[in-house]
Amino acid sequence: MNGRLVDAAERKKVLDAADTRRSSTSVGCSLTSLKGPYALGRQGALVATILGLPAPAAWGEMAREDFDGAGGFSGKATVNIGGAVASVTVAGTYKLNHDCTGTKTVYTNGGVTVHKPIIVIGGGQRMIGTQTDPWAVVQTRAEKIGD
């Protein structure tokens, strides 16, 4: 019986050591997970009138955003909402949790603020998000440019 207890104790030590190694090498996210330039595509619909644009209207957008790895970003976008096309500059902030979920707040030069929960994928190579403002239903897909 004593041999069985030693075997069980030894087995527990080995398993605990493996768990420690696994958690110390597991990949998580931090602000630095988003760093550098990203190409974004956004599609969806304007569902409530904003800035004089009538709703409902289809929404298409492409953008380049540069993330600083410290919680900030800036960029330029071309937006087509119901056939009205505009060039927009943006700046904003983001927060990321260790599980790669986070939030992004976008401030446009048109005075509109956009809120999105995001998920970072592939060690920062991709990102998805959805707009949570009541006036639009827009999905975002982004991919890192280069690297």
Descriptive notes:
This protein has 147 residues and is α+β, with helices and mostly antiparallel strands. It has one domain (31-144): Beta Barrel (Lipocalin). The chain is 16% helix and 53% strand. It has 1 helix and 8 strands. The protein has an 8-stranded antiparallel barrel with strand order 1-2-3-4-5-6-7-8. The longest helix has 24 residues, at 2-25.
Mean pLDDT: 89
CA-based gyration radius: 22 Å
Class derived from helix and strand content: alpha+beta
**DSSP strand tally:** 8
Q: What is the spatial order of strands in the main beta sheet? A: 1-2-3-4-5-6-7-8
In helices, the fraction of residues equals: 10-25%
Distance between the termini: 57 Å
CATH class: Mainly Beta
Number of domains: 1
Shape: elongated
CATH superfamily, called what?
A: Quinohemoprotein amine dehydrogenase alpha subunit, domain 2
Name the CATH architecture. Answer: Beta Barrel
> How much of the residues is beta strand, in percent?
over 45%
Sketch the topology as an H/E string, one letter per element. HEEEEEEEE
Number of H/I helices:
1
CATH-defined topology? Lipocalin
Largest sheet: 8 strands, antiparallel, barrel
Low-confidence stretches: 19-25
